[in-house]
Amino acid sequence: MNEQTTIASETTGQELEHLRMLSIFHYIVGGITALFSLIPVIHLVIGVAMVTGRLEGTDPEARFFGWLFVVFAAVFIACGLTFSGFIVYAGRCLRERRRHMLCMVVAALSCMMMPFGTVLGVFTLVTITKPSVKALFSPR
Q1: DSSP state of 113
Q2: Which of 85, 74, 82, 80 is nearest to 41 (CA)?
Q3: Strand, helix or coil at 130?
Q4: Does residue 37 sit within a domain?
Q5: Domain limits at 81?
Q6: Confidence category of residue 89, pLDDT binned at 50, 70, 90
Q7: Is residue 22 assigned to a domain?
Q8: pTM of this structure
């Protein structure tokens, strides 16, 4: 029985280390996601320039396309930054071992972002679906 207790405590220590590492990687992937979601800022600037008439020869059709640039860029940036915020928040929740379902949903959604998000999402799902790891999360 003493041997089983030692194995259980080693397993828990290893699982806690896995959660800590997953938390760190969530912070990293969240930062990378935020950086890549800011790429359409150039489209936003060009669209604003088209709408305000700062570009030479801006006709009404160009202003319409300017609004398309502004709207699509703003939506893409807002969605990307929101998703990166969720990834970082899931990393914090993993570190604190709370909100198990939120961590699972964010891990599943991050699988869409190849290659880093896919790897992170799969490893997170594999780790947090283990019953012993799920038991570590507080019921909040």
Answers
A1: S
A2: 74
A3: coil
A4: yes
A5: 18-134
A6: very high
A7: yes
A8: 0.83
* Residue 88 within any structural domain of the chain: yes
The residue among 30, 21, 35, 23 whose CA lies nearest residue 117 is: 30
CB of 15 closer than 8 Å to CB of 130 = yes
Residue linked to tokens 């220590």:
13
- CA distance to 6, 14, 23, 25, 56, per residue, from 11 (Å): 9, 5, 18, 21, 67
What six digits make up the tokens of 121? 């999402």
- The number of domains in the chain is 1
List C-alpha distances in Å: 73 to 44, 61, 96, 109, 134.
5, 18, 35, 21, 39
> Region 97-115: what's the mean pLDDT?
94
For residue 92, count other CB atoms closer than 10 A to its CB.
Answer: 15
| φ/ψ of residue 58, rounded to 5 | -80, 110
68 inside domain = yes
More confident residue, 139 or 87: 87
* pLDDT digit string, tens, across residues 4-63: 455 445 568 888 999 999 999 999 999 999 999 999 999 999 999 988 887 776 677 778
- What the block records as the tokens of 53 is 């008439």
